[in-house]
Amino acid sequence: MDLKAGTDVKIHLTTQVSQYGTPEQHVFDVMGQMVQMGSGLYLRYIEIEEGQEIPVTIKVEADGTLTLIRAGATRTRLRFGMGERYVTNYTTPQGVIALETVTHKMQVSLKEKPFSGEIDINYDLYLGEEKLGEYKLQLLFTA
To answer: Which residues contact 10 (CB under 8 A, 6 or more apart)?
Structure first.
């Protein structure tokens, strides 16, 4: 399948968050688009949060790393690599905060017919030495 022009996909996203021992789960379904640019695959969609549209891009890179970018009132750019610890910036109206991700599980699988895929990531988020929470993200998509 030629992804250079982009392919519309149905997305089912489940996020489980545990911050300071308090668990939350968010589930939503949305339409998005998968595009291939260079050696990377880009999955783009719009999240609705408190009435605001937030553009989200997930980049799956050829080296197996993954980057999640949310560009709302706060801008987040999280990077993931199995067993890796990455420093990232979280931009708020009050300034930039340095966060770190530590990835414990990362699995990306793609299928040709029908074109579909699954992204699973389990990671911890840190502010300096303080662990802010544990996160599990599962994203399923189908053309």
So the answer is: 29, 31, 32, 141, 142, 143
d(CA 139, CA 34): 13
> What does pTM read for this prediction?
0.88
d(CA 108, CA 121): 9
What's at 112, amino acid-wise?
E
| CATH number of this structure's domain 7-142, picked from the four choices 1.20.1250.20, 3.10.100.10, 2.70.98.10, 2.40.128.20 | 2.40.128.20
Of 53, 43, 41, which is closest to residue 139 (Cα–Cα)?
Answer: 43
d(Cα 109, Cα 65) in Å, to the nearest integer?
A: 13
pLDDT tens for the chain, residues 1 to 143 = 556 678 999 999 999 999 988 999 999 999 999 998 888 999 999 988 788 899 999 999 988 899 999 988 788 999 999 999 999 888 888 889 999 999 999 999 989 888 899 999 999 999 989 999 999 999 999 99
CB contact set of 124 (below 8 Å; sequence gap of 6+): 101, 102, 104, 131, 133, 134, 135
